[in-house]
């Protein structure tokens, strides 16, 4: 028996003026267990027939909740500016709190609610891609999508709350102590495992938007990838690549992808190399405020990565020497390989994970009584008002080719509350966690 999948079959709520609360309270819309992952392309043609099994084993096998707009208004204090966590190309993101009464099976927890800006550059397609991918892919290093809301033209996404916000916030914020080397290595390791999981599944996924702002951090610096709006299913059968419009963010996209539109998992590996370089250098991949030779981080730093004598010029001076020299050399070599112009010369993400694992130990690091400051749980991820509005230009082109204009992002930063940790205490904590972590 076959059944045609249409938007209406999958998301009946999108076709109602109001989603009845009684209906949306009915436990998860979809039951657990997914075998055959549903692709975005299966849905973009609403006429494409799929069997009932395909449906129940794919999107229906995910564990997403639907919410009404009224419920999301309530949990975010009517999308109050004081709940604003940040804003990207999709729209603003607000902190909310789900209590135990909202859904019987959903535990009380803070959440992040992302609201599609109806005048923005992104739209229904990105929202749907997020649901299709994150609704079906579950992994300790992918952010958990809890549910969504689709009412009239409104499109929202509800995620687990990541208390430290994005790597971009943590790495580049001014007026605060530098992110310690141990945390940097842990973040890279986690993000690499997330990317390896995407690349090496039965049906590989090309993430296409790997960058510091899409790596979210929980209180112990566990990294999780977010934003699957640009993700693509990898090539199938004998295909070597996916041909697609050039999308992504300036400074992160692989050169061959920009030149040809040919997308492979190796394009993500290049972007990983860019983030790796940002992490060890503490510098943004593109920065027009730097001297002209240094504005493009990869062009400036890559030639120095293989020369241990020059490496000091690349390593973040804010670390004040508190890093593993051996670890830094290995990380630099890895960045060099990931940033190779020849896509085939780049390592697979599973190899990147293997190379990063031993870098979690920093035996030759000077453990000094250095104290750094981390925000208290519950208040981390927000930053000081004085840092308001770090905006940077990026180019995102939509698959429908309608736009190629720059999007401006604005960040609102809120006050920090401070607690202190010593480097060695943090090291012990991380070491314990690393010993308990498994590759997935
Ligand atoms: N699950 C979450 N938990 C906590 N904060 C979040 C969460 N998701 C997003 N944020 C915050 O909201 C900000 C905006 O996120 P968003 O993904 O919309 O934009 P971006 O990644 O900065 O830009 P882009 O549109 O290019 O992806 C993030 O930088 C982060 O600070
Ligand atoms: Mg993002």
From TrEMBL:
Q: Which Pfam families match?
A: PK_Tyr_Ser-Thr
Highest taxon in the source lineage: Eukaryota
Subcellular localization, as worded in the UniProt entry: Cell membrane
Q: What is its EC number?
A: 2.7.11.1
Ranges where the Protein kinase domain occurs: 79-371
Name the major location: membrane
Which organism is this entry from? Vitis vinifera (Grape)
Q: Which gene is transcribed and translated to give this protein?
A: RIPK_1
Report whether ATP-binding shows up as a keyword of the record. Answer: yes
Any Gene Ontology CC annotation: plasma membrane
Biased-composition ranges for Basic and acidic residues?
A: 387-402
Q: Which InterPro entries match?
A: Kinase-like_dom_sf, Plant_Ser_Thr_Prot_Kinase, Prot_kinase_dom, Ser-Thr/Tyr_kinase_cat_dom, Ser/Thr_kinase_AS
For region Disordered, the annotated ranges are 379-406
An MF annotation (GO) of this entry: ATP binding
What SUPFAM superfamilies does this protein map onto? Protein kinase-like (PK-like) (SSF56112)
Q: Which GO biological process annotations does it have?
A: defense response
**Keywords from the UniProt entry:** ATP-binding, Cell membrane, Kinase, Membrane, Nucleotide-binding, Plant defense, Serine/threonine-protein kinase, Transferase
Q: What is this protein called?
A: non-specific serine/threonine protein kinase
């Amino acid at each position: 028996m076959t059944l045609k999948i249409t938007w209406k079959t999958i998301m009946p709520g999108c076709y109602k003026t109001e989603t009845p609360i009684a209906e949306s309270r009915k436990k998860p819309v979809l039951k657990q267990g997914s075998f055959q992952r549903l692709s975005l392309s299966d849905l973009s043609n609403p006429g494409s027939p799929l069997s009932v099994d395909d449906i129940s084993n794919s999107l229906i096998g995910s564990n997403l909740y639907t919410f009404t707009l009224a419920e999301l208004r309530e949990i975010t204090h009517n999308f109050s500016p004081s709940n604003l966590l940040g804003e990207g190309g999709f729209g603003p993101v607000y902190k909310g709190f789900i209590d135990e009464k909202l859904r019987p099976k959903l535990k009380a927890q803070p959440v992040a609610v992302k609201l599609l800006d109806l005048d923005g550059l992104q739209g229904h397609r990105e929202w749907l891609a997020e649901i299709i991918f994150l609704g079906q892919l579950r992994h300790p290093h992918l952010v958990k999508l809890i549910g969504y809301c689709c009412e009239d033209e409104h499109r929202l996404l509800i995620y687990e709350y990541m208390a430290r916000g994005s790597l971009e916030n943590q790495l580049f914020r001014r007026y605060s102590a530098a992110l310690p080397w141990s945390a940097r290595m842990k973040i890279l390791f986690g993000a690499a495992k997330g990317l390896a999981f995407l690349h090496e599944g039965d049906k590989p996924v090309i993430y296409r938007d790997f960058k510091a702002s899409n790596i979210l951090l929980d209180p112990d610096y566990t990294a999780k990838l977010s934003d699957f709006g640009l993700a693509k299913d990898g090539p199938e059968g004998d295909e070597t690549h996916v041909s697609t419009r050039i999308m992504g963010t300036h400074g992160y996209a692989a050169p061959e992808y920009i030149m040809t539109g040919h997308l492979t998992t190796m394009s993500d590996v290049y972007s990983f190399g860019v983030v790796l370089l940002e992490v060890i250098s503490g510098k943004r991949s593109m920065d027009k405020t730097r001297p002209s030779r240094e504005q493009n981080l990869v062009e400036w730093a890559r030639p120095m990565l293989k020369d241990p004598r020059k490496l000091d010029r690349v390593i973040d001076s804010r670390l004040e020497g508190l890093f593993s020299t051996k670890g830094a050399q290995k990380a630099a070599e890895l960045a060099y390989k990931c940033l190779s112009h020849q896509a085939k010369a780049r390592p697979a993400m599973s190899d990147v994970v293997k190379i990063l694992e031993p870098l979690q130990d920093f035996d030759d690091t000077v453990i000094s009584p250095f104290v750094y400051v981390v925000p208290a749980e519950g208040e981390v991820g927000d930053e000081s008002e004085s840092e308001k509005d770090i905006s940077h230009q990026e180019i995102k082109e939509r698959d429908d080719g309608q736009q190629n204009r720059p999007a401006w992002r604005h960040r609102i930063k809120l006050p920090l509350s401070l607690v202190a940790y010593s480097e060695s205490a943090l090291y012990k904590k991380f070491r314990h966690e690393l010993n308990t972590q498994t590759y997935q």
